[in-house]
Write a structure and sequence with these properties.
By secondary structure, the chain is mainly alpha-helical. It has a domain at 16-153 and 241-263. It has eleven helices and three strands. The chain has helices at residues 16-19, 22-38, 42-59, 63-72, 74-85, 104-129, 133-143, 154-184, 194-200, 202-225, 244-263; strands at 86-88, 95-97, 100-102. It has a three-stranded antiparallel β-sheet. Helix 3 packs antiparallel against helix 11 (244-263). The two termini are 42 Å apart.
Length: 264
């Protein structure tokens, strides 16, 4: 059985979404983000969620790989739901816990924002799951190319963003290994109050940051050994350009997503 990649890590499969140009997928991700923040009701969120579910099915990416992104933001989703649901002594409540209570309006608002976060995470995670780091770097560089007129180092910025995205799953896996190693040594992370739990993670953060700095130093040494001196004047072995179908998909689906957010 093929192993499941880490959170947000590229999963090579043969799907229409994989063959779509990286710049077109970046444009669709931007359109989805815009539509989600424009949508004002559950009808709009439902249509956008259905569109993202269709994209996940079309990508042929294992659902476990998509679920890793949801697990990473589960705390944010729960906190958003609770922060918007709880009220201080409302007149009518669905559930009371002392002076705090959950009413229908608060629960509806919390669920709306929680669903928005979930759809946004799944939609944007598909970008890295279906795009290799090399193609993603090229797509980001082409999207940000107009900024070069303002003397912005677009190539270096695209390379930095690509490296950061590439090492997110690696860092998550490293943190998980350190937590498991500390638990094997008797560390407890799920008992006590918030302050005690935060202190319990100190033995995890120290080796994690040590590994991050060591990996960054090794990466810098490797890039210097390969004569990397910035992206100015460099060419790519495979230059990619937007095809007609890429423009059609990006503009057509992007406009449809924004229209859903605007009207629903």
């Amino acid at each position: 059985m093929k192993p499941i990649s880490g959170m947000g890590q590229y999963v090579p499969t043969d799907s229409p979404l994989h063959h779509l140009d990286a710049a077109a997928k970046i444009g669709l991700a931007a359109a989805l983000t815009t539509a989600l923040f424009m949508a004002s009701g559950f009808a709009g969120l439902g249509v956008l969620a259905a569109a993202v579910a269709w994209a996940v099915a079309s990508s042929r990416v294992p659902l476990r790989a998509v679920a890793r992104g949801l697990g990473a933001v589960s705390f944010v989703v729960v906190f958003t739901l609770l922060a918007n649901s709880l009220r201080w002594e409302p007149a009518v409540a669905l559930l009371r816990i002392g002076p705090l209570a959950v009413d229908a309006a608060g629960l509806r608002t919390g669920a709306f924002f929680a669903v928005r976060i979930l759809v946004l995470v799944v939609g944007t995670t598909l970008l890295t799951l279906t795009t290799s780091p090399v193609r993603l770097s090229g797509g980001l560089e082409r999207v940000m190319r107009p900024l070069s007129w303002l003397r912005v180092p677009v190539g270096d910025l695209a390379m930095t963003l690509t490296i950061a995205l590439r090492f997110i799953p690696t860092t998550a896996e490293e943190a998980e290994r350190i937590v498991m190693a500390q638990q094997a040594r008797g560390a407890v992370f799920d008992k006590g109050g918030p302050i005690r739990r935060a202190r319990a993670y100190a033995p995890v953060l120290v080796p994690l940051f040590f590994q991050l700095f060591r990996r960054a130093d090794a990466l810098a040494t490797a890039m210097e050994a390969r004569c990397y001196r910035g992206t100015e004047g460099r060419t790519r072995m495979r230059e990619e350009r937007m095809r007609g179908v890429d423009w059609l998909v990006m503009l057509g689906l992007g406009a449809a997503l924004v229209a859903v957010g605007w009207f629903l």
